[in-house]
Design goal:
The structure is a single chain. The strands form three sheets. A five-stranded mixed beta sheet has the order 6-8-7-9-10, with helices on both faces. Strands 1-3-5 form a three-stranded parallel beta sheet, sandwiched between helices. It is globular and about 55 Å long. It is built from nine helices and ten strands. It is an alpha/beta fold. Helix content is 29%, strand content 15%. Helix 8 crosses helix 9.
């Protein structure tokens, strides 16, 4: 019922078409306070019904206008609960959204030929930035960090520095961290260039903790293996 704005702006969904099971989306519009990153990173958004007249005192635009402003295709009128059941049976699937009158077999071929780009490079910070604080210093390696993670660190009293995904262990250690957080993010952890080497060089030097993709990278760095599960694990399931 809520949370579509946070989902749209969560970098972990970069490159994905997202469908929402709850049938009505956009009922409280879009506001300027609930972003999880600088912009939406989804490629498409599928809903049963979108609200044309949202009601909330912080609302600045509709869900439809927000998607249009960012060039993201939205599709309404879909039985999203039936689609959810289909995905539940078959797992995460490739898909195509188009406004063109294209033969179905052509679109299926496009979907099958699609390969994920380097999505971490698309979502990571392009330069380090700092958030002031009086407590211990946490360096966040940004593989696609949600702003709420940074806010949570600040709430615990940390001074935070966020660095790009390509930062080396030496560059991180030169910042004098008390701990290093490997953030969430999109895509395959095995494809994040240089990440495992960086983490291995940090092991035993500073306390390390990871969330989602960052935790998977940490597992790979200590000798684990990763594979794509049939279903994504989210929320209480995670």
């Amino acid at each position: 019922m809520t949370g579509y704005q946070e989902v749209l702006t969560d970098p972990s969904y970069c490159g994905q078409i997202v469908t929402m099971t709850y049938p009505l989306q956009g009922n409280y519009g879009i506001n300027e306070a609930d972003y999880e990153s600088v912009k939406p990173f989804v490629r498409g958004f599928v809903v049963r019904e979108w609200c044309e007249v949202p009601s909330h005192w912080r609302c600045t635009r509709t869900l439809d206008q927000y998607l249009k402003d960012h060039g993201i295709i939205g599709l309404a009128g879909v039985d999203t609960r039936a689609l959810t059941c289909h995905l539940r049976r078959n797992g995460t699937m490739r898909g195509v959204l188009t406004t063109l009158d294209t033969p179905a077999e052509t679109l299926v071929a496009l979907a099958r030929a699609w390969r994920a780009p380097d999505v971490v490079a698309e979502v990571t910070a392009q330069a380090p930035y700092a958030i002031a604080g009086a407590g211990p210093h946490a360096v966040v390696v940004d593989y696609g960090v949600k702003w709420n993670i940074v806010r949570s660190l600040r709430a615990f009293g940390f001074r935070v520095t966020v660095v790009p995904a390509w930062y080396t262990a030496r560059q991180i250690l030169d910042l004098g961290p008390d701990a290093v957080l490997l953030s969430n993010g999109p895509g395959d952890p095995a494809l994040v260039r240089g990440a495992q080497e960086t983490v291995r060089a940090l092991l035993g030097r500073k306390p390390l903790f990871g969330i989602c993709l960052g935790h998977q990278i940490l597992g790979l760095a200590v000798g684990g293996r990763s594979f794509k599960m049939k279903f994504g694990h989210r929320g209480v399931n995670h």
